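User: Can you write out an input/output pair for a complex, sequences first and structure second?

Assistant: Here is one pair. Inputs:
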Amino acid sequence: MSAASPLGDLELIRTGALGAATAFDARADDPVLDGHYPGFPVLPGVFLIEAADRTVRQWARTHAPAPDGGDVELAAMERCRFHRPVFPGDRVLSDVSVVDSAAGLLFKAVVATNRGKVADMRLRYRVGPAHDQEESTS
Amino acid sequence: MTGYGVDRIKNTIPHRGEILLVDRVTEVVPGETLAAVKAVSGNEPCYAGLGPEAAPADYAYPVSLVIESWAQSAVLLSVWENPNPDVLAGKVELAGSINEVTVGARAYPGDVLEHRVRLVKSAGETAVLAGESYADGREVLRVGTFVVALRDVGELRPVAERTVLNV
């Protein structure tokens, strides 16, 4: 992992031709939880998106490397549904699998804790260089 | 300063510390639209792990935090006239779903994210919002629908082990 991220390390649980799974612990001493929310700590839902997205990018480095050698990039999140909150101490498992690889890469992701499914989403990636690449400084 | 600063923001939504990701509300028409800004800075915690080997692209602001910052602007609009700054005294905002999101240009330290939010529908304590985020005139994010609901904290405590409504 080299790109900026609000989440710490993800533990790789499984990886294969059709997808991967990672895990992390929602730590009670994470300063994010002090502010989200004072007196009632719950993990921000977007951290589940972050975990799923990083799991896909990590998978793609070995299974679908971008032509320029960089990471694939999240282009769209077609859907994301949050089912229940994640609390401090929960272990969060992100399981991503390839749905389609014909036009870009489409993944479905299921995120769960020991209490059950907490989120599911569909994420679409662009494999080529980003469309704003030529204007950005590098 | 024009608009509303962090004082009004903290008196409206419960987010605090490093996860409070809105700096100013620049325009608001209650019940209809809101515009807000957030300055991206290189000293934010998401950059703390990057060392001297990091490439320029590694400093792209995480998409998850762009979404969070936009979503906080959306929550600001949904509770603007009925603030909920303390979840223990009031209710907790929980995202139900976020759909049809497209990711455009990336933002970097020094950029100012400009969020635009529209209230699509509001029914009871559930609101549906849509909008976009820009950085330097380029679209960074587009959100088709964001559904957020206010819930009683007591309803959500994990010890209760009760089923949380899917929203």
